[in-house]
Every structure is written in C-alpha cells, then in structure tokens.
Specification:
Layout: H1 25-41, H2 62-69
Length: 70
C-alpha cells in the first residue's frame, strides 16, 4: 500500500470578501466643479442666501385651530 498524503477539504473563508474603498472625495469635488461650470456657462445664476434663512414655512397646527373654532 502506498502512503498518500492526507488531503484536507478546502477551508471555508472565515471573513467576507474585502470591499473596495470608495473613490476619494477629490473626484467628487472635481465633478461638482464641472457641473457648476456647465450650469454657469448655460446662463444659470447662483443665488446667495443669507445665513439663518430657512426654506421651511411655519404654520400653526390646523387640527387645533379647527377644534378651537368649533
């Protein structure tokens, strides 16, 4: 009988495959700069909004106002 080396079954990986790193933010910044330049070249205008200004509109709760009138 010939002596054969013991063959072990392939071990299962203990960790998930490594994820690729996201592209650096420099690429994103360059993309935004290109989009802004294209916007301005097409005749777009950038508005400056004062600090503290919000686009949210504030109104009283309608359910309470309706209940008080009744």
């Amino acid at each position: 009988m010939s002596a054969k080396p013991a063959v072990k079954p392939a071990a299962k990986p203990t960790r998930a495959a490594a994820r690729s790193k996201p592209e650096p933010a420099v690429t994103t910044s360059a993309s935004i700069d290109a989009q802004v330049a294209a916007f301005l070249a097409s005749g777009g205008e950038i508005q400056t909004i004062p600090t503290g200004t919000s686009g949210q509109t504030y109104g009283g709760p309608r359910a309470r106002a309706a209940a008080k009138k009744a």
